[in-house]
Amino acid sequence: MLFILYLCMWSVPGSHGQSLTTTTTSQTFVTSGEDNGQCTTCQFRQQSKLMRLHSIKSQILSILRLEQAPNISRDTVKLLLPKAPPLQELLDQYVQNGGVSEDEEQDSSETIITMATESQAITQGEGMPKCCMFSLSPKILPDSILKAQLWIYLRPAEEPTTVFIQISRMKVPSEGNSRSRIPSQKIDVNAQTNSWQHIDMKQLLQSWLKQPEMNFGIEIKAFDANGNDLAVTSAESGEEGLQPFLEVKISDTAKRSRRDTGLDCDEHSTESRCCRYPLTVDFEDFGWDWIIAPKRYKANYCSGECVQKYPHSHIVNKANPRGSVGPCCTPTKMSPINMLYFNDREQIIYGKIPSMVVDLCGCS
Fold this sequence. Notes:
Elements: E1 2-13, E2 19-30, H1 34-63, H2 74-80, H3 85-96, E3 100-101, E4 109-115, E5 117-118, E6 131-133, E7 145-154, E8 161-170, E9 179-189, E10 195-200, H4 202-210, E11 218-223, E12 231-232, E13 245-251, E14 275-277, E15 280-282, H5 283-286, E16 291-293, E17 296-298, E18 301-303, H6 313-319, E19 329-342, E20 348-363
Parallel strand pairs: 3-17
Antiparallel strand pairs: 1-2, 4-13, 4-20, 5-6, 7-10, 7-12, 7-13, 8-9, 8-11, 14-18, 15-17, 16-19, 19-20
């Protein structure tokens, strides 16, 4: 049996126009018997699968500009993950699919969720609030904001009442009045009813982005008729996951190309030609609890033989010694998946991760 092994380089688009290069392996087999050929093909298919899993891990970290996976445990995720309507809707979608992300048509937007933190020291003085600051992702640009909402959780009132939600923008104390009011919102609530409320923050967020040096955070109050503040602004015992957060929806101009058809095989196939095989990636197997959803997704991989079309093609290879020995079985079309995850600053991001699903395999 003649066994020829060679390396093939293929690139997938990364973030901000970067190109991520992944090394895949292809091989050509000439066997003296059908059984030996099938056995060797199965071994190579397993190798291709393992290399695909490794490349996915590297690709995700590179696209997200992470040197290593965020060190966020499952218990920490439970504490940090807001128990809020927009997130519950997203998680419910994944639950309905059994935790697996399907390759569906996606809209041209991305959602970034930022948890509230304590205000900067410059605003800390007598009677100054500790909440809330929001660390804004560099992906958010003033003109890209489609929607920006501040989500606030209200404790239950003792009786039916009207609640006035007041948001104050913090300023440098030396400017005199350290707060400037943003128009308040009035809502009616029932007795003993917990609720999430959202306030439009698009105008203030755009102002912060244009003048980031003026972002000293905001003060959040929600007074009932008796003057009680019902707003949850810190994680007291029993109130974990109820802190305020910003939900920002930004435009994404990335375009999806039309899916073509190609040769598809299953794990029991005896096909030796270049083919696309099914592969489900399980992030829990990686130990990546920082990826909230999907826990699994259908990635697929390429494997198989690429027979050279022309008998004298070796002459071309000699003329180009820096090239590969022959064509490689590689992805020729890929598509993104939607992912909900924590970044290394413990911000929650919901958006598209490009080139995560192999749609088509071919020889190149």
